[in-house]
Design goal:
alpha/beta, Endonuclease, Chain A, nine-stranded mixed beta sheet, about 50% helix, elongated
């Protein structure tokens, strides 16, 4: 049996929060809409941010008929979206838009897509509403099926709901907008109160996660395995220092190839050996990283980012931070994605929406805090705990 890994709901997105499970690797939601001959959707609520993600795919599709059924509960569907779709209904098409509103009671909460093409019917059932959060930034999970029986079953569920729903008319749009407006201030106050309470609880959760991680790290480093692994990291960094020969960085091609074989702090197996052809540029980049008169954020950005004045092809964040950790073992750890993600999961904030250098500075700060709270004195050895924790999480 084929094993399909979770993939982003929108293939163009690199976000990992809203996922689609059960879909073949080649499936693309927007492409499916694009090649459809009919589309049916029953969605608890719709926002303009969600519609903007799919509008083009639907309008340029081969679909003759688009049936959209939205919920009204809690006034989460945006009036602007209903107005836009009301105008779309007036067009002759294709596609021919038909939009309806589910009754207020009982609460309408599904998230279902039935997308028919000339050769098959694909369906998606899950938690994602028609919003940017639903498609991208929220933690959502939706299931994909391409099975005639599943499609027939969902159609038999959809049709009675569609028949009992209210067609979208100018009068209903105006009435919905008027009632929606009455709730705005109350919802804003409630949202502020909920956000404050959520922030307080989130802070408590971070504290719980930190305390748990710290206790696990303390237990690990008091064990014989932990002590041995910590020593391996220190020994590995001594080997790196011997091969790269700071502060002059006067290393040979043979030294460079030996350095690439050191797997601690992140494997370098994917770094081609022909990088040795660029040794003069690499040495120059390492000397630049070692210059403490230059702000750390600038050094990282200039060396790691493509197009940076000191960037060398294949020399990325892992190698650059290995050099920095070698030069500053007490304050600068090696950065790799697995360690960064794990540190975030422990409740230590590291902002991804910033420059590579600023993210590394935040990582250094949070790692220093973690090392101190664990009662460790060696920044390098802490990597051993993260490696063990990552393996345990996978299992």
């Amino acid at each position: 049996m084929s094993k399909y890994l979770p993939q982003p709901f929108l293939k163009k997105s690199s976000a990992k929060q809203s996922v689609l499970v059960g879909a073949p690797p080649e499936f693309d939601f927007l492409a499916s809409l694009d090649r459809s001959v009919s589309i049916k959707a029953a969605i608890a609520f719709g926002h303009m941010t969600g519609w903007n993600e799919i509008d083009r795919a639907i309008r340029k599709s081969k679909a003759r008929d688009v049936q959209l059924l939205f919920g009204q509960a809690f006034f989460q569907t945006e009036p602007d979206l209903l107005d836009l779709l009301l105008e779309a209904q007036k067009l002759s098409g294709p596609p021919r838009f038909r939009v309806k509103l589910a009754p207020f009671a009982p609460t309408f909460h599904p998230k279902v897509w039935i997308i028919k093409s000339t050769s098959s019917t694909e369906v998606i059932v899950g938690s994602a509403n028609l919003s940017f959060g639903g498609f991208v930034s929220n933690t959502e999970c939706s299931a994909y099926y391409c099975d005639p029986e599943v499609a027939a079953s969902l159609n038999s569920w959809f049709e009675p709901l569609w028949e009992s729903a209210l067609p979208l008319t100018p009068e209903r749009c105006r009435a919905y907008r008027q009632q929606h407006a009455k709730t705005i201030h109350a919802r804003s106050r409630a949202k502020a109160a909920i956000q404050a309470a959520s922030d307080e609880l989130a802070s408590m959760e971070c504290d719980w996660k930190r305390n748990e991680a710290i206790e696990l790290a303390k237990q690990y480093f008091s064990s014989e395995k932990g002590k041995a692994s910590a020593k391996e990291r220190v020994d590995a960094m001594n080997s790196i220092r011997r091969y790269l020969n700071p502060p002059s960085f006067n290393f040979t091609e043979s030294d460079w190839l030996q350095f690439l074989r050191i797997s601690e702090f992140g494997s370098l197996n994917r770094i081609p050996r022909d990088t040795a052809k660029s040794l003069p540029k690499i040495k120059k980049a390492f000397l630049y990283l070692a210059d403490d008169s230059i702000p750390l954020e600038m050094r990282i950005n200039d060396v790691v980012n493509q197009g940076g004045p000191m960037h060398v092809h294949r020399i990325g964040r892992n190698i650059a931070t290995k050099v920095l950790a070698m030069l500053n073992p007490k304050t600068m750890p090696v950065y790799n994605e697995a360690v960064g993600d794990t540190l975030r999961s422990f409740g230590y904030p590291i902002d991804r929406d910033t420059t590579t250098g600023a993210e590394y500075e935040a990582f250094c700060k949070q790692m220093s805090s973690f090392v101190k709270e664990c009662g460790q004195s060696e920044m390098l050895s802490i990597d051993a705990f993260f490696e063990r924790y990552k393996r345990r999480a996978k299992n």
